[in-house]
Amino acid sequence: MGTPEFAVATLGSLLMNGFNVVGVVTVPDKPSGRGKKITKSAIKEFAEFSPLPIMQPGNLKNAEFIFNLSKLNADVFIVVAFRMLPEVIWKMPASGTINLHASLLPHYRGAAPINHAIMNGESTTGVTTFFIDDKIDTGNILLREEIQIFPFENAGDLHDRLMKQGARLVISTLASIAENRIDPQPQSKFLKSGEIPKTAPKIHPENCIIDWNNDPVKIHNFIRGLAPYPGAKSSLREGSETLSFKIFESQPEMKDHKYKPGSIISDGKHFLRIACRNGYVNITNIQLEGKKRLNIVEFLKGYKIANYIIPVS
C-alpha cells in the first residue's frame, strides 16, 4: 500500500527479492496541473509493468474493497507513504501490518519527517519499520537504521537515500518476521527520561516563508529542508512592485554587521547575500515566481535588484 515515488523502491525490492506480492493498493487517479490532466500515483505507474492486481479505493471503509482485500489472503500488509488505515484493515493479515517511516521513531512522527529533520539541523536521521496501530506512527518498533545527514544535503537528496535504505529495511523486517526472530518494542523504550518526541507535521505554504530575523545556519537549514519542494519563499519589493521568489541553494555566513535583517548586499554580478541575525545568507540558486531556476550569476545578469528591499516584520 503506497502512493509516491518513496514507496516504489520498496515494491521493486519486494519483487526482486522473490516475495509473493499478491496486490497493490494506491490512491485513485486524479486531475493535476493547470490542464487538469488525469495522473496516476507513482506506485500505480510502476505496478502496471507487472501483472499485479491494483486496487484504488476512494473510501478505505468501502465494504466491497474490504471484501476484495480479504480475498487476497495476504500474510502481511506493507504500508509506505499511504493513508491512515481503518482498524478492520490493519488487523486483517495474520502477521500484521507493517509501516515504513522515514525517521528514527518515535522522533519525527507525521507527514514530513525528512523535511523537518533537515530544517531542525539534525546530523542524523534514519528509517523505521513498525506495526501499525490505531494512531499515527505510534506502533511497536520492529527495526531501525540510522543514516548521516550531510551539511549541504537537501530534502530531495536525503529522500533518495532513505528511499533505498527503507526498501532494504523492509526486506530485513520481513525476513526476521518469517524466521520468528524479531521482538517488537514500544516506542517509549527509544526515548530518554523526560524526552518529548519531535514532530513532523504536514508543510503548508505559510510554513515556507523565510524569517530573516533568524541566524544564517537556521535559515540555511530551512532552505535546504524545503528543497527542491515545496521551496523556501521570500519576496523583494520596490515601491508598489513585489517579486516573490524561492531559494533552493544557499551558504550561511556567520559575521557581525550593522545591516537590518532582510537587507540585500550584492555587487550586481557575482554574489547576492541577505543580512540576517549574526550574519548573512549567500544565495546561490534562486527562482522568481513564474520563472525558471537560475544560479545567482545568471539571475543577476537579468535582474537589477539594487533598489529592492525584503520586507521583514
**What does the main sheet amount to?**
6 strands, antiparallel
Q: Alpha-carbon distance between the termini? A: 44 Å
- By DSSP, the count of extended strands is 14
Number of helices: 8
Describe the structure.
The chain has 313 residues and is α+β, with helices and mostly antiparallel strands. The chain has 2 domains: 5-190, Formyl transferase, N-terminal domain (Rossmann fold), CATH 3.40.50.170; 205-302, Formyl transferase, C-terminal domain (Methionyl-tRNA Fmet Formyltransferase, Chain A, domain 2), CATH 3.10.25. Helices cover 25% and strands 24% of the residues. The chain has helices at residues 5-16, 42-47, 63-70, 87-90, 113-119, 155-178, 216-225, 296-302, and strands at residues 24-25, 30-32, 37-39, 54-55, 77-80, 97-101, 124-131, 141-148, 232-238, 241-254, 264-266, 272-276, 279-288, 294-295. Strands 9, 10, 11, 12, 13 and 14 form a 6-stranded antiparallel sheet that branches. Strands 5-6-7-8 form a 4-stranded mixed sheet. The chain has a two-stranded parallel ribbon with strand order 1-4. The relative contact order is 0.10.
Annotation keywords:
313 residues; alpha+beta; Rossmann fold; Methionyl-tRNA Fmet Formyltransferase, Chain A, domain 2; six-stranded antiparallel sheet; four-stranded mixed sheet; 14 strands
Could you write a compact summary of the structure shown?
By secondary structure, this protein is an alpha+beta fold.
